[in-house]
Amino acid sequence: MNGDGIAQYHVAGVEWYRRAAEQRDAKAQSNLDLAYLNGSGVPQDFVIALLWSNLASAQGNDSAKKNRDILEKRMTAKQIAEAERLGRIVETAQIRAIHLDEKSANSTSAS
Question: Tens digit of pLDDT per residue, the chain (111 long)?
Fold first, then answer.
């Protein structure tokens, strides 16, 4: 094997982590932060890594808290602010999706 399969494996794994992370799965969010921190399956991007690290940390994920500290030491204040801004957008979208799911479930059960 020439290693091509390994890169594809990482890309596929990141997609599954992203799907779970969007559903507020803290472990998946932490795994995404590691993927972006290390450039594993995605281009290295500290801003996006910190976005996912902050979301996972807010749910009590200890690994994400450690990664957040590492990331913030490597980033500028502007990059950190951008990660926080993007994190608020993602979190708001996740909350809206949850409320929509709840409304849908309630209207289905009322029928």
Answer: 334 444 555 677 888 998 999 888 999 999 999 999 999 889 999 999 999 999 999 999 999 999 999 999 999 999 999 999 999 998 888 777 665 656 666 665 555
Token pair 């490597």 in the structure block, residue = 74
SS (H, E, C) 76-91: CHHHHHHHHHHHHHHH
> What single-letter amino acid sits at 52?
W
CA distance 37 to 71: 8
Domain count along the chain: 1
Structural domain boundaries, residue 103: 4-110
Looking at this protein, which amino acid is placed at residue 67?
N
Nearest to 45 by CA among 12, 83, 8, 99: 83
pTM for this model (two decimals): 0.77
| Closest to 55 in 3D by CA, of 77, 73, 29 | 29
Residue appearing with tokens 């969010």: 29
